[in-house]
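Please think about what follows:
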Amino acid sequence: MHADDRSKRLAVFASFSGQGGVERMLVHLIQGFCAQGYQVDLLLVRTQSAHLNDLPEGVRCIPLGPRHTWLASFALARWLRRERPSVLLAVKDRAGRAAVIARALAATDTRLVLRLGTNLSAALSGSNPLKRWLRLLPIRRLYPAIEQIVAVSEGVAEDTARIARLPRSQIRVIRNPVITPRLAELAAAPCPHPWLAEDASIPVIIGAGRLQRQKDFPTLLRAFSRVQQQRACRLLIIGDGRAHDSLAALAETLGLRLGADGDLELPGFQTNLYTWLARANLFVLSSAWEGSPNVLTEALALGIPAVATDCPSGPRELLDDGRYGPLVPVGDSEAMASAILQTLDDPLPASRLKQAVADYKQAASARAYLDAMGVQAPA
């Protein structure tokens, strides 16, 4: 790669393994880079995600071959040695560690930047001591070689500095590129669900995310069951995952009726989540841990009232210590039900909620990442 080309190209290393918020935010970020005049090489470990369809034209998707991030280190090293990019942005912990090894193997001067979106301590809290040690050891050995770490929230930054034993100055907080120019357009598209029709008289609550342990949707179901004892409402939990059947079973145990004629639906992953969120009466985040919850940010950006668990790390920052919506203890269905009822009865104005997320615009986030990567927009 010629020097002139290096100054106009960015390399991004990631794994696209689903329809989650990380993949969606990375596509938003790449869109922002392209809007600033850059060309992007996206080096991929896995390529199973509908979000890849939203990449701008001209982005070079380069599958590295191996489906495991560690094994991809060798293919990445060969690419780095051949192309010699000035900077590589690695997305997620495993990609960051693999990038350090790949750069050492390639013996290049590529600057490494790592984006972290998860509170690692919380994610490892249920692990046995050996598994935790095996995860922390390479972090502590390899992270010091990374020139810049980007955290999506102050909580993630503080947690990373502590467990990686790094100076806090090595970690920069940059808000996720959640609010794109297309957000309002996508939100205005027709919504396919009858519960969200304009003339609907029964309030609809939405939860969204992968159906897995981190999102703790069982607590949301138990809270919703309590709410239903006091007022009519409906619940949509949007997303795919292994917990689908267990959630359906819990709903039956709680006496909730599944289906369009009932109280609860699990409609799976939705390509345009915004058109659902924009018509909800309330969004609830029930997570056990987060980095910076994108769907909570999106709900606020659309003016939708929210209730969230006070989990590490992002909700308290987003909701400004409860100023923009109630925070409840993780796993406490009784407190969540009370907050849901309170918010349904007395929601904050949409204009005030939108103020909470003014720092999460795509262009501002992309510019901050370019600064962290040590590059400037090409002339």
DSSP finds 16 helices and 13 strands in the chain. The CA atoms of residues 178 and 360 lie 6 Å apart. The longest helix spans residues 21-35. The radius of gyration is 21 Å.
